[in-house]
Design goal:
About 50% of the residues lie in helices and about 15% in strands. It is an alpha/beta fold.
């Protein structure tokens, strides 16, 4: 039987039209996949370019700020330190995110060197000191490392001064090795656990893999962008001293140092919870100093509370001063150091 060509043509057309929507959808999916792949490649390219710039800035910062002190190697870990002056030993431990230049720019070591043997350490992971990834560098671990450094360098019963996060290391030293610490000077410290939003915001760069990607790509640029806000917060309500302009910002924004800073931020609350249980064990002289208007650590909840827990301690609260007390009133800090040195004899 012969087919009607018109009928056959009509069927073929209907079949073609019925498949058209499926082909159109498949075409859109393929285009979408291409766009997704293109977007992923562009994102990967952007991250790669960013990481190259970050590595370049880190190398430039290290070349511009080479180690100017000495190294002591403890259990395969190199600690960078600077020493000046003679007399009774005074050890300075910096806060989180910074390095020994913080103390040097403040002028405090220059003041102290006329009558003390001043030793400033780059704590593990900061400045030019190592921070191996296999260790949780809580205050106790850092105190153990520093105690061995004391023995190697002949630092006998020093006055130990800690600022901010460095106060936790100073306390761990005094608690775990009381025979090795003559007295404590604690500046703008964090001693008791509290809720802190910055812990949640600033800890992610310490997370494995995700944090590694962040530290080599976006975190340094974000850090540089908000650097003026950070300075305003740590120095406020006072203005930042002009000499702090010499601080090597990109040394602090290197991926390795960002990891150390993020890890210490994450440890801040649990470390305070651990240490506070042992404060009553402290028998050596303790001198506590803080700014009344500290925007980083609430003086009433931290320094003043520690003074209440330690009846033998001495407290000085400086009105109108914020967190960076060693930059803002170095002469008054020297008075506390001198008091600590005399009280311990």
């Amino acid at each position: 039987m012969q087919r009607n060509p018109l009928t056959a043509f009509g069927r073929k057309r209907r079949l073609t039209l019925s498949k058209a929507p499926e082909l159109h959808i498949e075409h859109k999916i393929r285009n979408g996949r291409r766009k997704d792949h293109r977007g992923a490649w562009l994102a990967a390219l952007a991250l790669g370019v960013s990481s190259l710039f970050v590595l370049r800035r880190a190398r430039e910062a290290e070349r511009a700020n080479p180690p100017r002190g000495n190294f002591v190697e403890i259990d395969g870990i190199k600690l960078h330190y600077r020493e000046r002056g003679e007399g009774q030993p005074l050890v300075l431990l910096h806060g989180n995110g910074t390095m020994l230049q913080d103390f040097e720019i403040s002028g405090l070591p220059a003041l102290a060197a006329s009558r003390y043997r001043v030793i400033i350490f780059d704590r593990p992971g900061f400045g030019h000191s190592d921070r191996p990834r296999g260790t949780i560098w809580n205050p106790q671990a850092q105190a153990e490392l520093l105690q061995k450094a004391f023995e190697r360098l002949g630092i006998v019963r020093p006055v130990v001064l800690g600022h901010s996060w460095g106060t936790q290391v100073a306390l761990a030293l005094a608690l775990d090795h009381p025979e090795s610490v003559r007295s404590l000077v604690l500046l703008s410290g964090y001693f008791f656990p509290t809720f802190r939003l910055d812990v949640f915001l600033l800890s992610p760069p310490a997370i494995p893999v995700i944090g590694d990607i962040m530290r080599y790509t976006v975190s340094p640029w974000i850090g540089r962008l908000i650097w003026p806000l950070i300075l305003k917060r740590v120095f406020g309500p006072s203005k930042m001293p002009a000499r702090f302009g010499a601080f090597p910002v990109w040394m602090a924004l290197r991926p390795s140092q960002l990891r150390a800073g993020a890890a210490e931020t994450a440890l801040m609350i649990p470390d305070a919870m651990t240490l506070q249980k042992r404060y009553a064990e402290l028998k050596m002289p303790v001198f506590i100093m803080a700014g009344a208007d500290d925007r980083m650590m609430k003086t009433q909840h931290q320094s003043e509370r520690l003074h209440d827990v330690l009846p033998h301690s001495e407290l000085r609260v400086v009105p109108g001063i914020g967190h960076m007390i060693h930059h803002l009133v170095p002469d008054q800090v020297m008075e506390m150091i001198d008091a600590a040195g005399v009280a311990a004899r």
